[in-house]
Amino acid sequence: MPARSTALAGLARRQAARQLPAAIRPAFTTAATARPSSSSLSRAAPLRAFSSTPRRAGGNVPARADYKKLTAADVEAFKSFLSTPASSLFTTIASPDGSWTPVNEDDLIGYNKDWMDKYVGHSQLLLKPKSTEEVSKIMAYCYKERIAVVPQGGNTGLVGGGTPVYDEVILSTEAMKEVRHFDEVSGILTADGGAILESLSNYLHPKGYMMPLDLGAKGSCHIAGNISTNAGGLRLLRYGSLHGTVLGIEAVLPDEKGTILSVGMPGGRGGALRKDNTGYDLKQLFIGAEGTLGIVTGVSIMTPRLSSAVNVAVLSVPDFKGVQKVFQETRGHLGEILSAFEFWDQEGLELVLHHTGQKTPFEGEPEGGRAFYVLIETSGSNNDHDSEKLGSLLEHLLESEVIADGVLAQDETQVASLWSLRESMPEAAGKLGKVYKYDLSMPVKDMYSLVEEARVRFEEHGLIKDGSIKSVVGYGHIGDGNLHINIVADRWDEKIEKTIEPWIYEATAARSGSISAEHGLGVMKAPYVGYSKSDESIDVMQAIRKLFDPRGILSPYKYLPPVKEPQAAN
Amino acid sequence: MRPTAPSWLKVLVPIKRTVDYAVKIRVGANGVETAGVKHSLNPFCEIAVEEAVRLRERHKKDIENITVVTIGPPKAADVLRTALAMGADSAIHVEVKDGVIVEPLAVARALKAIVGEEKPDIVLMGKQAIDDDASQTGGMLAGMLSWPQANFASKIELDVAGKSVKVAREIDGGLETLSMDLPAVVTTDLRLNEPRYASLPNIMKAKKKPLKKLKPEDLKVDFSPRLETVKVEAPPARKGGAKVESVDEVVAKLKEAGVL
Q: Do A407 and B133 touch (CB under 8 A)?
């Protein structure tokens, strides 16, 4: 077939304008393009100005503990562990004998700050080791010298877990991103921890497989980060959580030897196996541990077959009760072909249309000026079969007036642009202002009342009237009982934050929900874990953490509330 | 006989089912692999359908009928249904067997026969199909009918009373505006419009719209191919680059490549 003509380049450009980037890409890095910078860092300084004082949204972070403050001698030591220090070590610390060129604070800002612009740290040292052995040497040294470390993947986290709180050394998995092995018969993929999720998808698709998870940040997030945060995402409904799909983990422990713990990885004792009941399932501890038990450097994961038939419909539903009814009917009619079920509210739609300049996909305005929107995706191996099932569901919903309107994608390009209505929501919110994001899970019937209560609360506090809060948007993986509530404020402000927290956690606990459905705890929710876990559970968790990280050097100040008695200085 | 108001216009929109624009094309031993690959309405044809629907939204009762027609295998009925869901009134499916190649010349001849039957005032079609990129059918059809033609339209203005159409078309030097009397052939280009989604109410209404099935013999047209495809091969794979660790290495590699 002849190469695409220039007319099609125009079509591609036009389509790119109509369909939005599917990934949330932090301003500084993507899988496809790295902005060129003067240094060999792949994340250049964003051009906006920022204050140099640590801006922290949230005042309950513990004071800096007595970890070692880095010296030039430490930098020398780290340098000796790396095979290519020129591209693996970046520090603002000066070299006494010129054996390395220090960088500016600006060059490290992309690693010191999260993409929401909410959490800023002041690390002086960024390490990008190329192999698990290098990570092991680094961790053994940090144990010996009691140097605090924050593991960092794609830095797309939403709870300040991936950035330093003070001057912890940033250990990035960016340079370890190869696919190690793929078994075409079983579909088991083994990769380095720093492999980017979208790259893995692109690797698998031509072979007829796909990653079992998908999220907006896919263009930047690392698989090790996904595992360390037990990322959920858009396909959990169909493929389950990482607790089920991960078969093996290779992690470096923060102990004297920098032990490389390999569980369920191919080639070892007991390789990457679908079924293996031999002892405590250690890998489960690392899934969702947010880098507090060890640094995940390798992963073995089950991948499902890529579906040849994918259909997407977006529906307009008059009220939230209707959304629940749609979910029930969808489950009933579609059964095994349902692969995603997302919802968002009128505020969310308006936010996205405003940010992207798109027109609404529907013919007109909803009745009463507001509606809820549901995205249904089906994935199967037989398009005729799936289209028929989906078609009869949609007809039924329309005729019984459960839904007011809807559109059905007619080609792949439309599938992508309908998905972008949902996937662009976080980015659109970020463009409108500073976003206080909460990720809560609770029974579906109680979900939207929380959003409505939040709006009332902000009204009562005068925050809507004076423009402090610009919009309250509710959306999420309603199929999993997961609400993302985005409170868009015009600035990071403790006053605004105090109106939100801890009220929102109390409101969640009152609904017997979880304060963090999938985003994790990081630094944001570490103090509040008690809202969703009993004291006894927290005590056991602290004990486990102490067992793996006796010197408390991995991701300090995060994940769990500070332990009552101070760490014994060694 | 029903009295026809002189200003009512009939629009005929020929459309084609092609491999989906977003799909990555793979070339096998027998040419482009199409088995099991997602197919959909050719993007330029989609734009033509959208334009026809917009003409009706603009001119209302003056547009008597929008008929879509496709010449293709049984599955091509899908694109007819998409077009009906976008707002076309009726559809004609000239069904050929799966795997049969229908060349632009055969398509033009078939459309000439259909134009003879349906007597449209304007034939609105995509400028080319994204599978063969031939861009021939529109021109051939206009030639066979001896109708005026305007290709690569980026703007269409219909004068119903005057039975003429003004078309702005994109050319290398800029925009050229042509005025022609109806009946005429107009082919669509990218910037003409942005097609709408198929809404559920319209998808359901489309099921009740008439879809006429014809065989090539009914049109008395010779569909036998006149071209022989000698070879189809994929463009050569892009050779990967090499990553370097420092500026010095960049200079060394550039010198090696003879660039510096």
A: no
